[in-house]
Amino acid sequence: MEDKVCPTKAEIAIYPGSFDPVTNGHLDIIERASKIFPQLVVAVLSNPQKTPLFTLEERKEMLQKSTEHLPNVQIETFSGLLVRFARQKGCRIIIRGLRAISDYEYETQIAVINRKMAPEIETLFLPTSSEYSYLNSTVVKEIARFGGCLAKLVPPFVEKKLKEKFQT
């Protein structure tokens, strides 16, 4: 029996988030998604309803430095509807990381809404590696605020930026 190679269409995937700051959990998803898709756009959200610790440009810079070893990853910023940004990029796949069941419930609601607005765009859930299942940006900022050890939570460049913000 002859092996058949399935033809593939090059896909651009988008991994959106606020990344305030980027954590090793985010990087886990980015690295794994970059192995699946020929091009991955990490989209940093500018949300006027939130007051981030880092500016949009600082978050973009931290992601660029943290992903410079991944040639098929590009970092961009956006505001407004994710599906609109995805369409502008010619993207049909949104990557969302999941840590726990509570993430699944929330992310499923967002995926359903996005699908109603843009039926051609699919959401793909990637579970975070178990070593990062507890990790989020809020926890990282809290640890940084009180001078805790960040070494296994964020890349070294991000750790330095956090220490500068909190002067620890």
TrEMBL record:
It is an enzyme of class 2 (transferase). It is found in: Cytoplasm. Residues 14-142 form the Cytidyltransferase-like domain. ATP binds at S18, F19, H26, G97, L98, R99, E107, Y132, S133, Y134, L135, N136, S137, T138. The keyword Nucleotidyltransferase applies. Keywords: ATP-binding, Coenzyme A biosynthesis, Cytoplasm, Magnesium, Nucleotide-binding, Nucleotidyltransferase, Transferase. It holds the Pfam family CTP_transf_like. Signal peptide: none annotated. Homohexamer. Belongs to the bacterial CoaD family. This is Phosphopantetheine adenylyltransferase.
